[in-house]
Amino acid sequence: MTPTRVLVAGARGRMGRVVCAAVRAAPDLELVGEVDLGDDLGSAIRAAQARVVVDFTTPAAVAANVEAIVDAKAQGVIGTTGIPPARMDEFAAWAAQAGCGLLIAPNFALGMVLLQRFARAAARHLSRVEIVESHHEAKLDAPSGTALATAHALGAAGARPGPHSGHPARGVDVAGVQVHSLRLPGLHASMEVRLGAEHETLRLAHDALSRECYVPGVLLAIRAMADGRAGLVRGLEPLLFGDGA
Questions:
Q1: Active-site residue numbers?
Q2: End-to-end CA distance of the chain
Q3: Residues 84, 136: one domain?
Q4: How confident is the model at residue 140 (pLDDT cuts 50, 70, 90)?
Q5: Which domain holds residue 202?
């Protein structure tokens, strides 16, 4: 079988280096390009004849990169966070018009995807929910894209705000869920969803102990998009469960 040709944007970044190493090590994938800030992504895609482009860059660069991916008729796997919902809708329209596919996920850790699914199921029965998420102090966005996506999903599942919601000391209200962000040196990426009801509480937590924990999800996304999916795929749940629920 011919290996899938993969190009990585943001290849010199911390996550980009991990992705490049994982693609090199995968027998069914071939790393055909590495680009970073200042490189012409569209030209690189065409020159390398890349089938799938993986983007781990910055919110400021991602729109131009997605445009270059769809213009080149490649498939995109986007791990850059901090993309506004309106921009996501725009990306979906670009992909549909070009007849290619984009998978955009706020988090590629399989354990985090499972946490989000479990938390949504729990929020239907324990509707008072809060999120505490932490990252190293250099992380650009707060709350994280993962925390925002989780809060919106929990709000849709029935989570409701509690007393004093909206007070500055109570974190940020996202769809009726209070989100608290910690940014300190020495912290790993972690998120805890706390649910409460009369006489009981439930805590669901995920810790990303190294960037390698995202590799299985990134490789899953690359292989799925290489099969020719069209349009926008939001997150890994459709790949893991098939229902997107």
A1: 135, 139
A2: 33
A3: no
A4: confident
A5: 110-209
